[in-house]
């Protein structure tokens, strides 16, 4: 398992394919809602891929919003879930946020993943809300020096 910060369009396309498969095809998110103005390599956010046996199987990004690092678009292809890759992605994104000076991170977590995020130190910070037809919670975490 390894992560790679994306600096090349070729790798960003791999991340987009994973997101399309998970969010659009599997979860029914409209294609036009999945991709946005932050889906580029111009420094507004940092994208990464996670690899399992040399294959890119998961992705996520961190965007800088106020004093927060906002973790977004975190997903893993279905056959590769349960290998601990979610934790690998979250840890890498938190590290990137910390490198940019963020003291806190937040995310919109799907309610079905609330337990996973809580195990990683996140706290639920909102009532349930619907995003693209899927129930979510705002979750936050304080970052400490690693």
Characterize the structure shown.
It is a single chain. This protein is α+β, with helices and mostly antiparallel strands. Strands 1, 2, 3, 4, 5, 6, 7 and 8 form an 8-stranded mixed beta sheet that branches. It has one domain (about 1-140): Aminopeptidase. It has helices spanning about 10-25, 30-35, 85-100, 115-120; strands at about 1-5, 45-50, 55-65, 70-75, 105-110, 125, 130, 135-140.
Total strand count, please? 8
The helix content, as a percent range, equals 25-40%
In CATH terms, the superfamily is Gcn5-related N-acetyltransferase (GNAT)
Give the name of the CATH architecture: 3-Layer(aba) Sandwich
Number of domains: 1
Poorly predicted sequence stretches spanning 5 or more consecutive residues: none
Highest CATH level, the class: Alpha Beta
Distance between the termini: 20 Å
Give the amount of beta strand, in percent: 35-45%
The CATH topology name reads Aminopeptidase
Radius of gyration: 14 Å
Order of helices and strands: EHHEEEHEHEEE
Mean pLDDT: 94
Based on helices, strands and strand pairing, what is the structural class?
Answer: alpha+beta
